[in-house]
Amino acid sequence: MNWDQIAGNWKQAKGKVKEQWGKLTDDQLDVIDGKRDQLVGRVQEAYGIERERAEEQVSEWERRSNW
Question: pTM for the full model?
């Protein structure tokens, strides 16, 4: 998985991100705008987890995503 592909197709990726992390709002997804670090931070914030755990979740999502 290449994060550049995700960032380049962020409008399509937002739906998959929303499926994975339903607590993230559309406004938050617009602010993230394909930036991986922003996604990790928002996941950490929304779910009240440590940054390391949020990184793991995003990495796992990247591995499973089909881009």
Answer: 0.91
